[in-house]
Amino acid sequence: LSFRACAICGSRPMSYLLYCVFRGGRPPEAELPTGIQGKTVLVVDRSGLGAAVSEIAQIDPVPDVATVLTYEGVVEYLFGQQTIIPMRYGCTVPDRMGLAALLDGRHKDCEALLHRLDGLAEMGIQFAASTSEACPAIDSPEVHPACSQPSDRSGVSYLLAKQQHYGSADRVAEARNQRVTTVCRALSGQFVRHKVERPASGAHVVSIYFLVPRGSVESFREASRRCLEDRLTKLVVSGPWPPYNFADIANISGN
After folding, report:
1. What is the mean pLDDT of the chain?
2. Is the model's pTM score more than 0.85?
3. Whole-number Cα distances in Å, 14 to 9, 91, 152
């Protein structure tokens, strides 16, 4: 079971939407933001772990912006108070007994992950993937297979074009990986761990997520600005955020 998936999925009447898991002190519910669908956010204690939940009649598989912002607002409020394991929107349990079973079953994993996340926040860096590999002109000796009609080329020329195309794709991927390495090297000493999210087919943005000591966020930003000044690449820096991209129980042993 990964906390990035629904613990117990379904749309049973008045199930509980799970926002995050934490340990230690129980934050006063009166001070918590209002949850999804205007419901009160409740804090459930279980053997030294706490979970923030609110009742929900049905999960919208494609939530609107207001719903997502409300959900994130609750998670970010609790993140501002203590170390948490943030959940992705849509993680539900059928009732308090289901939540207790979940916390009992993953108690050791949650404790270990909370220890790993202590004092850390997530920062993100995005940069544009290369889009310079455009198709050559139709009379070019390097014709992309998709740029000409079958009648325009022989079988041999088609195979050569395919070879050139995939060779070009490999070069783009290699250049992208070099940029990731360059950025991470420039930020060395500023983060504890990182993850790279490479673009899916048709996408043009590479994302790198960093676990950064909360007290070093400004230092991380400054180092990122130096990357911009050094023209390493055009970067977009965001955060600090709850560590969503590092809150997977399945990856508790590290990467």
Report:
1. 77
2. no
3. 13, 14, 63
